[in-house]
Amino acid sequence: MNDRANRISNGFPNRRQFLYGSAISALAAGRLQASQTPRSDSKSKLGIGLIADVHKDIIHDADDRLKTFVDAMIAAKADAIVQLGDFCIPKPANQPFLDIFRRFPGPQFHVLGNHDTDGGFSREQAVNFLGMPARFYAFDLGGLHFVVLDANDRPPGHKSGYPKFVAPEQLDWLERDLARTSLDTFVISHQSLERPACIVNQADVRAILDRARHCGGRRKVVACLNGHWHIDHSRVIDEIPYVHINSASYVWIDDPGRRGPRLDAELSKRFPYVASTIPYRGPLFSTLEIDLAQGHFEIRGRSSEWLGPGPRAIGYDPAGYPADSLFPGIRTRNFEIGG
């Protein structure tokens, strides 16, 4: 890692943000001291564990799913881990769940999901509970730049439902942040910048990414990663890959007529929302493997299977979903880092 690794910035510095950045740097330094060498044989390589949409407050075995992920990343000597939102609501009863994530002995990063404020909690409460530096922020790691967005801003005229908007102050910050860095950059959000209507003003965000892409004649924005839709899918727009990281836990069934028990009677009573899902039998997560020397990165996949009948077996085929995206796994995908 270079001396700029783990720089945290959200354009609005404060004491807690500074302390968070210092803590992340200390974690990184401690990890390198313990192992003497980085996770990979080459300093040009970086491995980051990704997990999305665990939904502690819905799925019955969220703790086991998260533990499997953290144990796998520890065993793989990953350089950092990121959860892409819809993790848990910020109530004291969920502290042991968060503690599982914190067992990872290296840098840990969080993205705010729309369900992280269920139950009347605010985004500020979620930020404080998770220990985030801010709702949106940026950091450097291993010679790369990472931007974390919060697409839960309230758009003008919003009346009901989950807001899905990136407010002007955040757009301004994003443009300034991308202008400041000379590093290849990954943009991470909970909601998709690729799927129609996932973020109301996604075109505004993509325009900023496109302007950064052309800065200096090179493609600065390497890729955009998101969770939220619980699908396995990717698409390239204007040379930038947009990659959905599938849920760790399940597919949600919008059609009430297709819902039914997935657990035994006792568990169904304790976790009633599972009947509205098709769970994956085992947890899904992935590793973002980046090789700067070779100029490519990989989303390393993981397979599972449906817990009970899958979408086809129950006749569930929701409109608007990309073909073959309802899949009990994360497919391995490879991309070039543009020059």
Walk me through this protein's architecture.
This protein is of the alpha/beta class and 339 residues long. The protein has one domain (15-336): Purple Acid Phosphatase, chain A, domain 2. Helix content is 24%, strand content 21%. It has helices at 15-35, 62-75, 95-102, 123-130, 168-180, 202-213, 265-270; strands at 45-51, 80-83, 108-110, 137-141, 144-148, 185-189, 221-226, 233-237, 240-244, 250-252, 277-279, 286-291, 296-300, 302-303, 329-330, 333-336. β8 (233-237) and β9 (240-244) form a beta hairpin. α5 packs parallel to α6 (202-213). The model is unreliable at 1-7 and 11-42 (pLDDT under 50).
Short description:
With 339 residues, this protein is an alpha/beta fold.
Category by helix and strand content? alpha/beta
CATH architecture field: 4-Layer Sandwich
Assembly state: single chain
Biggest pleated sheet: 6 strands, mixed
Tell me the radius of gyration.
19 Å
The coarse overall form would be globular
Output the number of helix runs.
7
List keywords for this structure.
16 strands; 24% helix; 339 residues; alpha/beta; disordered N terminus; Purple Acid Phosphatase, chain A, domain 2; six-stranded mixed β-sheet; 7 helices
Topology:
Elements: H1 15-35, E1 45-51, H2 62-75, E2 80-83, H3 95-102, E3 108-110, H4 123-130, E4 137-141, E5 144-148, H5 168-180, E6 185-189, H6 202-213, E7 221-226, E8 233-237, E9 240-244, E10 250-252, H7 265-270, E11 277-279, E12 286-291, E13 296-300, E14 302-303, E15 329-330, E16 333-336
